[in-house]
Model the fold of this input.
Amino acid sequence: MKTTILFASLGVGVALLAQKPAAPSGAYAKWLDEDVAYIITVAERARFLRLTSDQERERFIEQFWLDRDPTLGAATNEVREEHYRRIAHSNQRFASSYTAGWRSDRGRIYITLGPADEVESYPGRFERWRYSRFQGTSATAMLEFPLR
Done:
């Protein structure tokens, strides 16, 4: 009796392991962990990780950007283009010898919020960024980044 239960439990565990989708690799892992790391929602990430084929992943990525497209039917998706422009700018402007620009604090903020309305720079000490109308409100956000 105990042996039967053990095998039944083991069989269920093996079946569950066989159904688990493989983690995305290559370009799909880069897309998830780098390209959209700061803008993908928890629910979207979970859905993406459940996908089992590259065809499903391609459809997901296409829909991901369509959901953010302010002008459906236009030749380009301005949000997507701006997002990748911000990543490139961050990599060029905020990189250090040990961190890619998009991974830096300033890079993350720049990618998610865009350029600050005002920047005060204190070379060798810190940089202060001010965002007015923070995220669509009348509030102002002031962020300070140490410069190393």
